[in-house]
Amino acid sequence: xxxxxxxxxxxxxxxxxxxxxxxxxxxxxxxxxxxxxxxxxxxxxxxxxxxxxxxxxxxxxxxxxxxxxxxxxxxxxxxxxxxxxxxxxxxxxxxxxxxxxxxxxxxxxxxxxxxxxxxxxxxxxxxxxxxxxxxxxxxxxxxxxxxxxxxxxxxxxxxxxxxxxxxxxxxxxxxxxxxxxxxxxxxxxxxxxxxxxxxxxxxxxxxxxxxxxxxxxxxxxxxxxxxxxxxxxxxxxxxxxxxxxxxxxxxxxx
Length: 254
Prior knowledge:
By secondary structure, the chain is α/β, with parallel strands linked by helices. The protein has helices spanning 22-33, 45-57, 72-86, 109-131, 155-175, 195-198, 203-211, 224-231, 249-253; strands at 13-17, 37-41, 91-94, 137-142, 179-186, 189-190, 218-219, 242-245. Strands 2-1-3-4-5-8 form a 6-stranded parallel sheet, sandwiched between helices. A two-stranded parallel sheet has the order 6-7.
């Protein structure tokens, strides 16, 4: 009988950048529930400590280490500390994020640079630093369906996520065969930060539901399964892919 790799990250050391809120936190907690050891990090010590406690409650080993993706030395310190504690990193998840809402003509150049620095260059930095220390494993970048859509007032975000997709494909080619690099492109996801915008009863929510074939927004936990798959040995022949998890919105919008 043929034995197939399991879709699990049990026993894998995982670092989740931006892992203390939103989709990143859901992935960090989901990996812990599946048996991984998880380092969930962000810039805020209090958020790191709070998430670390949640991870320990789930039985995961962890460390408390902040990280600012705009600062290469901060990323290097996170990588060094994690490797010293766990010997290696099996899975890296890039989920740090920021945005600037502005029309094209009124967009401030400083906001453009800030979003690109976090959402795109930050992914480049973390991938480069960690890949240099990883013997093998998986990198999962959190992109967005917005990479393929023209969305008003979100140009820096859309541009950055399109860059993440290109970075993912190029890194996958260069880091193969030892390290796989893939991305997840979520659609509209309910998080504490989007609750007010996407909550029931808003016109934005009604429009999203109408245009999405599955007729709703996603819970952030619905992104976790894709991350577990891409981080698991079951995805051993998957690299350079961008997996859309958007309820069919992108295809229906084209």
